[in-house]
Structure formats: structure tokens, C-alpha cells
Design goal:
Blueprint (H helix, E strand, L loop, with lengths): L1 H21 L7 H4 L9 H12 L2 H12 L4 H8 L3 H9 L1
Helix pairs in contact: 4-5, 5-6
């Protein structure tokens, strides 16, 4: 589970940084957002996992294949036996 949390943490940091850039606030250092490597489980980690678990199975599977396993959209579509556009749609939703 630790590797999954680490990956989700990185994704979350990238999203926060992107939001700050869009708002004209520049980059934020990871230290400002909290540290997942100090042995303590960050508060937001439980929230992320709770929200991911509430996703429909189709969206959750697409999310894990692409963002956790690192598959391309095409590879994920092949694994799920759906068109590539369906994978893209599930991720966008």
C-alpha cells in the first residue's frame, strides 16, 4: 500500500502545483504540503483513498491502470477491452 500512497501523493502534489500556476501563484515546494515519508500517515491520504474507493469500478480500474500501473491509454484500453476513447472518458470523469 505504501507505493500506492506514494504515487497518489505525487499525483496530488502535481495537481496542487498546477492549480497554483493557473491562479498565478507559482510553484509550491513539496515541504509546504506535508511529508509522507516521516512515518506518519497524512490526513489527506485517507481522504484520497476514501474518494478513490467511491468511484465506480470502471473509473477506478482505468485510474489505477493509467496512473498507478503507468500504462498508456492504448494499453489500458486493451486490458479493459474497451475503445481508447472510453478510457479517456473515464479518466476525464
Amino acid at each position: 500500500d505504501r507505493w500506492l500512497f506514494s504515487i497518489l501523493h505525487s499525483i496530488w502534489l502535481n495537481e496542487v502545483r498546477a492549480q497554483h500556476r493557473r491562479q498565478g501563484q507559482g510553484c509550491m515546494a513539496a515541504e509546504e504540503l506535508g511529508d509522507a515519508d516521516n512515518g506518519e500517515q497524512p490526513v489527506w491520504l485517507n481522504e484520497v483513498m476514501r474518494r478513490v474507493s467511491r468511484l465506480p469500478a470502471a473509473q477506478r480500474n482505468a485510474l489505477f491502470l493509467v496512473y498507478v500501473e503507468g500504462l498508456s491509454y492504448r494499453e489500458a484500453a486493451k486490458v479493459l477491452a474497451v475503445p481508447i476513447g472510453t478510457v479517456m472518458s473515464r479518466l476525464a470523469a
